[in-house]
Amino acid sequence: MRASRRRGQAAVFVALCLMGLMLVVAYSVNTGIAVNDRIRMQSTADLATYAAAYSEAAALNEITKKNQAIADVARDCRRTLEHGGVPWSTIPCQCGTTDIGAEIALMSCRVELDVAISQWVAAADYSSSVEPALEAGRATAESNFAGTGDKTSFMQDIFGSPTARWTNSTMWRTPFYAGITPTIADFRQVTETAFNYQFLNYCNSSCVPVPTMSATTTLPTWFYKDDRDPDVWVAGRVMGTPEKRYLDTSYRSTGRDGGYFGASSTGGDDVLVAYAVAKPYDGSVGPSTGTEGNTRTGNTRTGLVYPSASIRFPKLTMYDEYRARMAGIQDNLTGGLAPTTLISMDGARLAKSWDTSKFEH
Amino acid sequence: MAREKRGQSAVETMMVVPLVAMGIMSLYYLWSVIFASENAHIRAREYVLHGDSYLPDADGVSGSAPFSGTNYERADSQSFRFEARATDQSLPVFGRAESIRTTAVITSD
Predict the structure, then answer these.
(1) Which phi-psi region, left, alpha or beta, contains residue A315 (left: φ > 0; alpha: ψ -120 to 50)?
(2) Which of the residues in chain A have pLDDT under 70?
């Protein structure tokens, strides 16, 4: 009787063991897939922000070339006004404060500079610098993790972010030229580059020419930044829902179930989130040394414009050598905020906390 | 009756042990596949960023990268595509090993 009661005991034991074993296997597989997806998502974030930074670097190189073109125009203008070291003299025995030939040359310079400057502004505008960069980031995200392209954010809608369009503050972006506001960096324009010339003046009764300096004409020319470029970088947040190949052991239909690694979950969608920061570096859009009054403006002399050898042209310090690299986020943040908290915050709170010194460049 | 029960534990153990062994082997196999996949993803990412300068265990990794050996290359154009492929092999279990291939891409398109 006792023996018959014990029949099947082993089967029950085996069934329980197998069930436990299956649970362990399932949970291990679940964790493995989740870790794998987490790594994929972080890779995607890294590559997406790198792509955006690379695109920004390319845009900065293009902007630098346009800036060099402005400097070239200014240099050629000065050489023209130098007139080979011979004073301008087009109308003998006339008295005046200017020379017609030189003034025509100066006018031509002004037009050429305006064209070169407008090309620079077009290259630096948000639509041709930052926007393509963000598109590159999204395309890269989509290529590496299907479904993430549309959910990739570069903080472009957050005030204070380097990728945000200029809104109504001069804190980060300086409106400087005809109401057009490039936003890839805080550029400033040199507005007082000096141009003058020497001409023969006949302001005496004997019609004897006297070499005279014209008044200095100041024209807007090239652009520069106050520092190298700590304010140009890309912070990316990539989100995605991996394929449902795993067991969602903490699923709740109401959402907020913890999801993957504590990421938020709404309904049945577990969302993975990854952050990364990258930045362009190593180039120089404009003169990076000197003060407004001399090197940056190209005016090492306030008087005669020639000989040109004595004029230091800022082109020498414009390096179209921008590259891109990954950047880190410092953990030592004020207020005890985790890096991910910092870059995922939005609105006014972020505006107060957005401090580029927290990002390793 | 007692004679009938002799060896029952041995038989039960013989039945359970292979099952447990299979479970453990399966676990090991799945871990190995997942590990290989993670490894491939990481290697592809590192290669597409660092190119040939990424030397550790570079077998099975190829592609193009914006790195020229000593420094990142100058960004030339806003149209670009760098791509790295990495292959990794899981540890063989039951005489079978999975080959995992992944691609990492940096592109503007």
Answers:
(1) alpha
(2) 1-7, 158-161, 166-182, 226-231, 243-270, 288-316, 328-361
Nearest residue to B48 via CA among B107, B1, B8, B94: B107
Please tell me what DSSP assigns to residue B95: T
B65-88 pLDDT, tens per residue? 998 778 899 998 889 999 999 999
CA distance A181 to A125: 7
Flag if A57 and B75 touch (Cβ within 8 Å). yes
Separation CA A294–CA A286 (nearest Å): 14
A chain contacts of residue B45, beta-carbon cutoff 8 Å: 43, 46-47
Nearest-by-Cβ selection for B30 from A32, A50, A280:
A32
Q: A185 with A280: CB under 8 angstroms?
A: no
Q: Considering the entire predicted model, what is its pTM?
A: 0.82
- Rounded-to-integer distance, Cα A73 and Cα A82, Å: 14
Q: Give the domain ranges of chain B.
A: 2-107
Contact residues, chain A, for B26 at CB < 8 Å: 25
Element (H, E) at A119: helix A100-124
Where do the domains of chain A lie?
Answer: 25-358
Q: Answer yes or no: do A324 and B15 touch at CB < 8 A.
A: no
Residue range A49-72, pLDDT digits in tens:
999 999 999 999 999 999 999 988
With the CA atoms of B42, B48, B49 and B52 taken in that order, what torsion angle do they form, in degrees rounded to the nearest 10?
100
